[in-house]
Amino acid sequence: MDQIVIQGGRRLKGEIRISGAKNAALPLMAASLLTADTLSLSNVPHLADIATMARLLAQHGVEVHMNGGAENGFDGGVLDLKAGTISSVVAPYDLVRKMRASVLVLGPLLARVGEAKVSLPGGCAIGTRPVDLHLHGLELLGAEIVLEEGYIHASAPKGLTGAAVVFPKVSVGATENLLMAACLARGETQLINAAREPEVTDLGECLIKMGAEIEGLGSDKITIRGVEKLHGAEHAVVADRIETGTYAMAAAITDGELDLIGARADHLDAVIKVLEEAGVTVEETNRGLHVKRTNGPVRGVDVMTEPYPGFPTDLQAQTMALMSTAEGAAMITESIFENRFMHVPELARMGANVNVHGASAMVRGQPQLTGAEVMATDLRASVSLVLAGLAAQGETVLNRVYHLDRGYEQLEQKLAACGAAITRRRAPQ
Ligand code: EPZ
């Protein structure tokens, strides 16, 4: 296992290229199952989760070619995916348990070949992560679903039929599974109370390039008219708004100044509003975003996570790190996941003052955090500890960095290039 070692207290200055979004690339890769032609994705980030999805698709019979990517000096990898024939409809436990997004092969397999056997993903550190909304929606499209021995057995021997699907709560994954399945269903499907995340819109725009008939992307009501088949397409993965928000907070917490190349301000309204209230300037440039602290310390700002366009839950831990160094207090409420405060005890080891009451955490800003040895528990919690380490006095050692590798491409390289004293090493046995 690797460790990341940070000597804190350095201001970040320079520019960081924002990678393609992990949470867009994963459903886009699953969409390749919907056609026998080649789907060519560019600006694909080089991440562990992408490799896991590629392995999962390959065992379904998809030919996967990754040409390009950071190691070849490319900006973003090009991934060609061709599901000429589906050789297996099974998504096995050992792959699905590594990455919950594997459940996104369910809708496309059902739509393409009328059958799927997908391991239940199981929970993860941040919550039980049920998939009931995915299954109920697919049943409304005519799928027969049986849960047996930890697997979802889904079948639609006569194909799927369009229907009105009302989601009782907003679900990104369920919206994406139903969006893909409905493309090849007979007739019209309406997804009501659909997720509006930019990654859902990016998937929909790619499906339209593949020949799908979709309206209402970005709204909470998406209408899909099924077609006979879909064809190949070329699509560039949308920039990662969560990576953008993470590095914007890195600039703020170190009192630095960063240019985030390729960042899209229009996907970060709620985040920019919070940062500006906290005393951080976020300016749009023709290359992306320029971020710096206006003057004086960061001010405490209350935050509540909500479905898009609200404040993203995937930036909650990073915001807590930033508020731990603010002047004043901040109430941070997590309304999406039931257990997404694992970073609190680790931040406390660095001197943060955070009191959790149910879904809310009261953060009282401290003038100075101190470096410590800490443990990563999940992807976004891990990066909140990196942010705290960048600002803390002394050395921070972060263990279990495999969590980070799932979602942040070249994290230490991007930060070191802007002046951070950050290195990776093999953990002592
Ligand atoms: C996606 O997860 C993202 N993952 C998550 O990012 C992100 O935090 C989440 O959306 C919310 O924005 C990917 O896109 C791969 P949901 P997803 O379905 O689709 C409940 C990261 O760090 N729910 O929108 O699994 C669920 O428990 C990851 O990159 C049901 O009850 O999230 C949660 O409380 C973490 N039944 C809420 O809905 C269901 O069938 C939102 O979940 C599905 C979800």
Class inferred from helices and paired strands: alpha/beta
Number of strands: 24
Measured on Cα atoms, how large is the radius of gyration?
A: 21 Å
Contiguous low-pLDDT stretches (5 residues minimum) are: none
- The proportion of residues forming helix, as a percent range, comes to 25-40%
Which molecules other than protein and nucleic acid are bound?
Answer: ligand EPZ
End-to-end Cα distance, whole Å, is 9 Å
> What percentage of the residues does DSSP assign to strands (E)?
25-35%
Number of DSSP helical runs: 14
Main sheet, how many strands, which sense, barrel? 4 strands, mixed
Read across the widest sheet, the strand sequence of neighbours is 22-23-1-24
Shape: elongated
Mean pLDDT: 95
Write the layout of secondary structure elements.
Blueprint: E1 2-7, E2 13-17, H1 22-30, E3 38-44, H2 48-60, E4 63-68, E5 77-82, E6 90-91, H3 93-96, H4 106-113, E7 115-119, H5 132-140, E8 144-148, E9 151-155, E10 164-166, H6 172-182, E11 188-192, H7 198-209, E12 213-215, E13 221-225, E14 233-236, H8 241-253, E15 257-261, H9 269-277, E16 280-285, E17 288-293, E18 303-304, H10 316-323, E19 329-333, H11 343-349, E20 353-357, E21 360-364, E22 373-375, H12 379-391, E23 395-399, H13 402-405, H14 411-416, E24 421-426
Parallel strand pairs: 2-15, 3-14, 6-7, 10-11, 18-19, 22-23
Antiparallel strand pairs: 1-23, 1-24, 3-5, 4-5, 7-9, 8-9, 11-13, 12-13, 15-17, 16-17, 19-21, 20-21
Helix pairs in contact: 1-2, 1-7, 4-6, 5-6, 6-7, 8-10, 8-12, 10-12
